[in-house]
């Protein structure tokens, strides 16, 4: 039909139940996140910017499919992003309350999904997928969106916004910055937001600098400002320590940074670290880890010692059927 159906499984009696439908949507959805404490579902959906609901956007999609031509008219410079033509549709964040039936089965609460960006200051194009996170209490989300304007096509300027999940408001926290923003993440107690910020609005490969926004004082501070590396991912280890993934001499490394002193201590310094997730209630992180001669697998790593433990071996036949020469590291002075 062109839409999406969301399914859930429930954990009962020590095992997972069969998947059951939770909600149906008239348009495709993506980036699904669920906050357990508040029973709030959040997701992104590309919708026509003039519409107020997913249903209205789906009707415009249907009319568009019935057109006899494929011509498009543009009134600004944002015509194509790399190999994809820009359409009148914008990715927007939506929320939906969930509830439980008498049999403890997860269901969507009655009512339509709410677009929490529409008619707010953040009414623009989300900068990237997977770019929003819940606050610890589930009442707000932080995300990154491009700044609308006539210079949209040739400026990288984007802001970190904090929005109420009920759609009442969405406010930027770094309006004074003019470069690209990314990777917002709330501190464990929700009082601060760490994010990455570039300084140059015309250079999308500028160095990412680490910023922390205090929600009470509405002030922003720098972390490890003189560190000459560009992190690509941020997490909180605790209220005093950040975790970062960064590129260094051809390796994607994982390190912890003391917020007060800015001291950087590598945790994983070899091969390549990809996505990183905290494991609640433990002193370990779950990472995907790979090398030039070894495909990606899941590992856990101890934050304090960097001790790695393999979790998966997804391609056990790899070393038996394929020969790869041992890679050697070479450094040149340029």
From TrEMBL:
Protein name: Dipeptidylpeptidase
Designated gene of the protein: dpp5_7
